[in-house]
Amino acid sequence: MDTTEFRGRTALVTGGARGIGAAVALRLAAGGADVALTYEQGKDRAEEVAARIRGLGRRALALRADSGDAAEVEGAVERTAAEWGRLDVLVCNAGVYTTGAVTELGPDAFDRTVAVNVRGPYLAARAAVRHMRPGSRIVSIGSNVAERTPFPGLTLYALTKSALAGMTKGLARDLGPLGITVNLLHPGPTDTDANPADGPFAETVRGLTALGRYAEPAEIAEVVAHLASGGASYMTGAVVHADGGFTV
After folding, report:
1. Range list of β-strands (E), 111-238
2. Rounded CA gap, 37 and 15, in Å?
3. What does the alpha-carbon distance between residue 49 and residue 200 come to, in Å, rounded to a whole number?
């Protein structure tokens, strides 16, 4: 691993206290970035990730922010930029996994899921652009179910993750003249607290992938790191899959 690929750069990872978000925050820090991360709950876990980032010799911030609250998500961006004077990489990872039959999920569930999974990334990107320079990166984390929904009860979640594709393409067009790239990553089944590889449905889920296994969060973080790196300078508006062949 090149420990200097992100030297001098700063990053904000929403939902960075655990799972994919924590792995992304640590991977960017290992590459030389100073990293801020947000959390809604689990302050201790967020502070643990921040401490590990500092252990890598980088600066870190753990910021309490609900991505469904416009003022809080925008405030996290402003706090990061104010602390370090710039923002080079935004990774929109925070999300809520809302499941249930469409007949059971009403307006409140709809509004909350859209607020966190769609409005949050939009507002974070909108705020971040004010502090970004040419060469900056925005990466959103979607989901494999945006393109293949194999079980009932995923309508609302799939709807929000599908919306990120349109947002990504629109932002890429808007921000291209500024030299800012915008890309979307759809991870497949990944071994996290929310979706453990030894969970009750894991055997079925593994069978839906071509590789027959779950990803480790670090594998997803590597793809995010590439999209945030100079090596992806000509990628924008792309929807990238790291799903073990879930959608093939």
Report:
1. 137-141, 181-187
2. 7
3. 28
What is the residue type of 100? Answer: G
Break the chain into its structural domains and give their ranges: 10-242
From first to last of the 248 residues of the chain, give the pLDDT tens digit: 788 899 999 999 999 999 999 999 999 999 999 999 999 999 999 999 999 999 999 999 999 999 999 999 999 999 999 999 999 999 999 999 999 999 999 999 999 999 999 999 999 999 999 999 999 999 999 999 999 999 999 999 999 999 999 999 999 999 999 999 999 999 999 999 888 999 988 999 999 999 999 999 999 999 999 999 999 999 999 999 999 999 99
SS3 10: strand
Instruction: Please provide the distance, in angstroms rounded to a whole number, between the alpha carbons at the two ends of the chain.
Output: 30
Give bridge partners of residue 62 from the DSSP assignment. Answer: 37
Angle between helices 19-30 and 217-228 (to 10 degrees): 50
Whether the CB-CB separation of 129 and 181 falls below 8 Å is answered with: no
Catalytic residues: 157
- Distances from the Cα of 121 to the Cαs of 73, 95, 125, 161, 176, in angstroms? 9, 9, 6, 11, 18
Domain spanning 10-242, CATH class: alpha beta
What the block records as the tokens of 197 is 């590889």
**Any residues with CB less than 8 A from the CB of 132 and at least 6 apart, and which?**
86, 87, 88, 90, 178, 180
